[in-house]
Amino acid sequence: MHIVVTGGSRGIGAATVRHLSALGHRVTFFYRSSHDDARTLAQETGAEAVCADVADGDAVSEAFSRLGPVQGLVCCAGIAHQGLISQITSEEWDRLFAVNVKGIYHCVNGVLPSMLAVQGGSIVTVSSMWGQVGASCEVCYSATKGAVIAMTKALAQELGPSGIRVNCVAPGVVETDMVMGYGPEVLADLAQQTPMGRNGTPEDVAKAIAYLLEAPFVTGQVLGVNGGFVL
Predict the structure, then answer these.
(1) Sequence ranges of the domains in the chain
(2) Which residues are annotated as catalytic?
(3) Fewer Cβ atoms within 10 A, N terminus or C terminus of the chain?
(4) β-sheet bridge partners, residue 51
(5) Model confidence, pTM
(6) Residue 201's closest CA among 6, 14, 8?
């Protein structure tokens, strides 16, 4: 299976690239600015690195035009913002929606021609448990991730008759660069609040993504990968 992973140079995306490559899939990953990380990951896994900002529709369209048929899409690209709603600027708000939500719109439209041609394919989006229940001081991020869940369910209904499945993972606290700003004490407290007694790893999420990519009778589902933090 040829699978495209967005946001693939770091964090959950990079773990997904490694895991899918190890399973024998052909993997192409998009990244925006982490050139060194992307180069290293490509050399390590044999995956193809493509520099493309998912918020840029023209760049995404051009990238897909050069890839050939794609059977799987994993939308990992995402950014966050912590702070009171009064502290986020209009530009920051728009950028979060441009990457976290419109980026999925661009990439889904990029893979649809090849998936529709064969009446099959699998798309996995990455939301967050905060998209399910919301988080204080992460209003915009929560809103974008709630939108990802709604998009997933709507796309599953729209594309199901064409043999295309669309599912979502909703990670909990996963120890990537995105949460390192919390500090060690807060991370330890979050781990204590988690029934599994620890925070997640990118590999935990990558394995859930791999399952959803290949589960033949699963669509429109949101799989919580959060150690029981949100039930």
Answers:
(1) 2-225
(2) 141
(3) C
(4) 31
(5) 0.97
(6) 14
